Amino acid sequence: MKHIFQKGTDEAKPVFLLLHGTGGTETDLLPIAGMIDPEASFLSVRGNVVENGMPRFFRRLQEGVFDIEDLILRTKELKDFIEEAAATYHFDLQNVVAVGYSNGANIAGSLLFHYENVLRGAILLHPMVPRRGVALPSLANVPIFIGAGDNDPICLPEETNELSSLLTDAGAKVAVHWESFGHQLTRTEIEAAKAWYEETFSLGR
Ligand code: MLT
Hints:
- The chain has a seven-stranded mixed beta sheet, with helices on both faces. The chain has a two-stranded antiparallel sheet with strand order 4-5. Strands 6-7 form a two-stranded antiparallel sheet.
- Strand 4 and strand 5 (54-56) form a beta hairpin.
- It is an alpha/beta fold.
- It contains five helices and eleven strands.
- The model has no long low-confidence stretch (mean pLDDT 96).
- The chain has one domain (3-200): Alpha/Beta hydrolase fold, catalytic domain (Rossmann fold).
- The radius of gyration is 15 Å and the shape is globular.
- Helix content is 33%, strand content 24%.
- The longest helix is centred in the middle third of the chain and has 22 residues, at 68-89.
- The structure holds D-malate.
- D-malate (MLT) binds next to helix 3.
C-alpha cells in the first residue's frame, strides 16, 4: 500500500497507524500525529480504493452503507500490510496505535472488530459501526479514544454510543469525547485525544 514511514526519535513510543478520511492521502494526518506525540513513529497509509478520484480504505454502496465483502477483504489487506511494514521498518507489532479519521476511523474500527492483537490502542475520530451482527474478538484492556460530534450528520450520536458499547462489551476501555462541530475534526478534539493518550500510555511529563 502507498505509505509514508517516519521513524520516531523515541523508538519505545508507539507507532501511529495513520488512516485518512475519504478523499485524503497519507500526508493528511501527519500534523495531527505530530501534535499528539512528536516523538512517536508514524506509518501513514493511503487507502487502496478510489471513489470518483477520492482515495478510501474500502468500497461503499452509498453514503453510510458499506460493501461488507470489500470491507472484510480490505481489512485483511491492511492487517497484512502492517505486518509487512513491521518487518521492513523493524518496529514492534505489539506497539501499533491507530489514529483514523472518518473512513480511516472506520477501517481502524474494522481491524478491532475482526482481529485480536493487531492494535495496542486506537484513536477513532468520528467513527461509525463498521459491521453489525458479528462477535468481536477479545479487546481486553485495549484503550480506545472516540472523538464524536453530538451533531455529526454522518456518524450520528446513537451510532457513536452503539460503537462504544460494542467495544466496551468486548473488553476495551473506551473514552468518548464529544464536540459540536458536525463531522469536522477540531483542535480541541485533538487536544483531548493527546491528553487521553498521555494519561493512557503514561507519557505525561
Ligand atoms: C465512510 O464511508 O467510511 C463514512 O461514511 C465516512 C466517510 O464519509 O468517509
